[in-house]
Amino acid sequence: MARRYGRESNDEQLIDALLALLGNMLATRDGRRKLLIVAILALLAGGAYLIWVEAHRPHYAAGPTVRIATWNLRQFSPTRGQVNLQRFAQIIEDNHFDIVAVQEVKRDGQEVDALVSTLGSDWRSSIGPLNESREHAGGNNERFAFIYNASRVREIGPARLIPEHAADFDREPYEDTFEAGNFRFTLVTVHLDFTHPEKRRQEAETLAAMTNDLSGAGAGDKDVILLGDFNEENQPARANLHFIEERGWERLIHDPTNLTSTEDFDNILIDPRSTTAWSGRSGVVNYDQIYGYRDRKQAMEEVSDHRPAWADFATGVAAESTTRP
Fold first, then answer.
1. Which CATH number do you get for residue 106?
2. pTM over 0.85
3. Alpha-carbon distance 181 to 128, whole Å?
4. pLDDT tens figures, 57-93
5. Are 208 and 195 in contact (CB under 8 A)?
6. Same domain, 49 and 75
C-alpha cells in the first residue's frame, strides 16, 4: 500500500507542476505565443504521421482484382505465447488481403483455425500435412496453409505437398488451386532453409529446375504463382532467387520483409510468359511501423518477425487475354 500511495503522490505532484507551468505561460504574451507554436507543431506532426500511415498502407486496387499475400507467421501455434490474433486479423483486413500463403504453422494448425474464426464467417483455410523431417530435422515439423476470403476466392484444389524432388527439400513445397472471377491460379508456397546457406542454395536450384513444370512454359497458359519465405539475403554471394529469374521468372517484391529492413526474405514470383494478370501493383506492409510498435521484440512476439508481402492480379477477364500495364 505504501508504494502505491507514493506513486499516486508523485503523479499528483507532476500534474500540479504541469498545471502551474501552463498557468504561468498563459499569464504572459510570450508564454501564450510559445504554447501556440507547440500546438501548431503537434498538429503538423500528427497530420504528417497520418499522411505517412495512409501512404504506406496498401489500398485496394481499383477494378476486379484479387490481392494475394505471403506471410511467415513465426512458429504459429497455441503454445507460442503473446500471439495477438486480433492484430493479425486487423492487418489482413486493413490491407484487403483476399488470400494469404502462410509459413511456419506448427502442431495441428489450431492457431490457423483460431485466426480464421477471428477473421469471420467468410474465411476458410487449406492446411497442409506435417512436413516431418526426412534425413534430418530440417523440416522443423511445420505445415503450410492458405487462408482465404471465400466471398472473393473459391478453392478448386487439389491441395498437396509436391512430391517431385521431395528429397531435395527440408520442407516440401505445398500447392493449391483457386479461382477469383475468371482468374484461375495455382499457388505454390515454399520455406527454404534458413540455417544452412548451402542447403538453401540447393533448394533454390531445385525450385529453378522445377519452374518449367510448374508453369507449363511453352505448353499452355497455366497461371502459377510461387511465393513464400525464400530466406533471400541481400549479400550477392548468398542470394538465390536469381536461379529462378534466369529461367524467365520475375520477382514482384523489391522491398525488405524483415523487421530490421535488411533482408528480402519473402517474395512472390511469376512466369510472365504464362501469367499475364499481374496488375503491376505489389508491396510490403510495414505493419510494425503502421500499427505503432516501437519495440521490434514486441512486434515479433505479438505478430511475427516477417512483414507480409502482397501483389494484385486482375480477375475480370481471362488471364491469357489480360495485358500487363
1. 3.60.10.10
2. no
3. 25
4. 554 443 489 999 999 999 888 888 788 999 999 999 9
5. no
6. no
C-alpha cell, 311:
501483389
Using CA atoms, how far apart are residues 91 and 110, in angstroms rounded to an integer? 20
Shared domain for 103 and 238, answered yes or no, is: yes
CA geometry: angle at 138 spanning 232 and 205, to 5°?
A: 45
Please choose, from the candidates 57, 101, 99, 98, the residue with its C-alpha nearest in 3D space to the C-alpha of residue 76. 101
Say if residue 163 is preceded by a cis peptide, omega within 30 of 0.
Answer: no
19-45, pLDDT tens digit by residue? 888 788 788 888 888 888 888 988 888
Phi, psi of 280 (to 5 degrees): 95, -5
Number of domains in the chain: 2
Give the SS3 label for residue 263.
coil
**Quick one: CA torsion of 304, 226, 115, 297, rounded to 10 degrees?**
0
94 and 49 belong to one structural domain: no
Phi and psi angles of residue 125, each rounded to the nearest 5 degrees, phi first: -140, 155
CB 253 within 8 A of CB 220: no
User: Are 23 and 84 within one domain?
Assistant: no
Domain that holds residue 41: 2-55
Residues 6 or more apart whose CB falls under 8 angstroms from that of 267 comprise: 70, 227, 228, 230, 232, 241, 251, 252, 253, 257, 309
